[in-house]
Design brief:
alpha/beta, 201 residues, Rossmann fold
């Protein structure tokens, strides 16, 4: 029997996944969680063989959960589930130790097969996402530039971005100009759209 943890902030999704997996003779959902920290706590308490974690969760996202479980519970294989997977998300998840990356549109039988595969030591990546990853450029922005652009995506004034990022307003302006130049964007909004399209934000 493969013991499974489900973590997703949407109860309907968790319930549906649990019902689908209950149809499989060799899979048992032993715990559920609605956020990242809860997923880590549940994994440590129940010691599942596989954890299925949503990419976007409050408290800690699926990539952060994968990294924490790789450190604290390496025997637990992590499969990241995403409704909006991008190549950059895939890269981050695999680098964090995830063994699988699946989009939410897959049939239940496919997900069950993925859980068996990763439990047996294999890896699985959504084929469409894998193909996109081969043609998507690497992010040209530094971590600090990404941080500033992420704050800019909320349409905050430079002064507020500077305060939150612990930078001088002039430094924020310089970072944003550098970002626009690197991305070939004519405005801050266009730079944000480009970064979001490639999954860098």
């Amino acid at each position: 029997m493969i013991r499974v943890l489900l973590a997703d902030d949407e109860e309907l999704v968790r319930t549906a996944l649990a019902a689908l997996l209950a149809l499989e003779d060799d899979l048992e959902v032993v715990a559920q969680a609605q956020d990242g920290p809860g997923a880590v706590r549940a994994a440590l308490a129940h010691r599942p063989d596989v954890a299925v974690v949503d990419l976007d969760m409050p408290g800690a996202d699926g990539v952060q959960v994968a990294a924490e479980l790789a450190r604290a519970l390496p025997a637990c294989r992590v499969v990241v589930l995403s409704g909006r997977g991008r190549p950059a998300h895939l890269r981050r998840a695999l680098e964090a130790g995830a063994r699988g990356f699946v989009t939410k549109g897959v049939p239940g039988s496919t997900l069950a097969g993925v859980l068996r595969l990763v439990h047996g030591g294999g890896r699985y990546v959504d084929p469409g996402l894998a193909a996109d990853a081969l043609s998507t450029p690497d992010c040209p922005l530094s971590p600090r530039e990404l941080e500033v652009l992420r704050l800019a995506s909320f349409d905050l004034p430079n002064a507020v971005i500077a305060q939150r990022a612990h930078l001088a307003p002039g430094t924020v302006r310089n970072y944003l100009l550098a970002v626009q130049t690197k991305l070939g964007a004519s405005s801050r909004a266009e730079a944000v759209r480009t970064a979001e399209r490639f999954g860098w934000l």
